[in-house]
Give the backbone structure.
Amino acid sequence: MTETTRGRIVLLEGIHPSAEARLETTGMEIVRMDGSLERSELQSVLREATMLGIRSRTQLDEALIRNAPNLQAIGCFCIGTNQVDLTCSATLGIPVFNAPFSNTRSVAELTLAEIVMLMRRIPQRSADMHAGKWRKSAAGSREVRGRTLGIIGYGHIGSQLSILAEAIGMKVVYHDHISKLPLGNAHPAKDLDELFATSDVVSLHVPATPATRNMIDAKCLARMKPNALLINNSRGDVVEIEALVEALQGGRLGGAAIDVFPEEPRSGNSAFETPLAGLENVLLTPHIGGNTLEAQASIADEVGDKLVRFACEGSTGTAVNLPTVDLPSRGEGQHRILHFHRNVPGVLGTMHSALANLGVNINAEYLQSQGELSYVILDVDPADADAIRTELEKIPETIRMRIIVD
Ligand code: NAI
């Protein structure tokens, strides 16, 4: 399949307008829609789309992707990409982009605020005031200065939180399943036992994996310090909710802040129930850790830029499913041929022989392979582009080809 770069970018799910401003530079038509689409509507939109921007509600399965004949790239304007069939899109040479740390700061800030709120037992104080009760008391209310924060998962969010917590006088220990550079004065705990035994607050920042599923169970909660606080702003199935409820009701833990749940409603207006509702000193939020206007704008900019760079230069940069290449701009007046092919021995040899037989000049060549896929980029003189394309199309391992012209 050979394509040139012109077409239509469809942005679903009310993506922040800043993406549109960036994408205009591609010269493509931009269609914006506020909500997610029913499957049949999505099918018809996909038939015409050159690039598709989605957030987490749009599910792109194999059948939908295979029936999108013009689709060149998918932008997930969020962190996760599990709503897209990454294998199928890779097999078709369609890169999938996301914004892995555009909302890191928002989650870290919320977590820090929750630590302060829980330490001061604000959920109850605020509920009392709303109920017309003036209960002024210092009972159970603590400063955070000098307390120890135990961070499980010292990645983007965990390490950012580490810096913020130290800035307000907390000590930080962390646990990660791989070795991580400690920031500031933080230090790694010997093991999870040490972290539980020393932390006044435990905050979870691990991804959802088989190893982290129900990672915090009754046994872990029993190992935490009496009256310690638990914060989960990571993924809903990392904590066993029933065990947490018991630990809170039994007075074992002093409080909790929970932003993510094992079952979350798909739509914004759905009812929601959790056994944590109504418990004292518990903050419940509807998965809004990363939801700030700044994060939304930053995600729009980040993914928008990645789509622009792929459209205009062929860079796959930080694509999550394809060989990644950060390309320099084309030389003036050059055409750029982007060739995705199956990574089997001999393809490059066939390609070079074909080019040698044509007697054409290749001004720049880049190659990156990953698993079963290879991505070759050739900068060529415009006069040679058609002949090269004809030869490359004959290579049976070719998956997809695109030419970027001026
Ligand atoms: P990250 O990938 O940068 O960091 C995760 C860290 O956890 C890594 O350092 C990794 O080595 C570590 N880890 C993985 N498995 C582990 C295990 N079994 N034991 C110990 N450590 C383990 O991810 P990031 O960006 O910091 O996100 C962390 C979590 O926050 C993710 O679950 C993400 O989905 C969630 N998140 C939640 C948001 C919200 O709105 N509440 C918004 C953004 C992210």
In short: The chain has three domains: 1-102+292-322, 104-284, 323-406. Residues 323-406 form a domain with the Alpha-Beta Plaits fold (CATH 3.30.70.260). The longest strand covers residues 362-370.
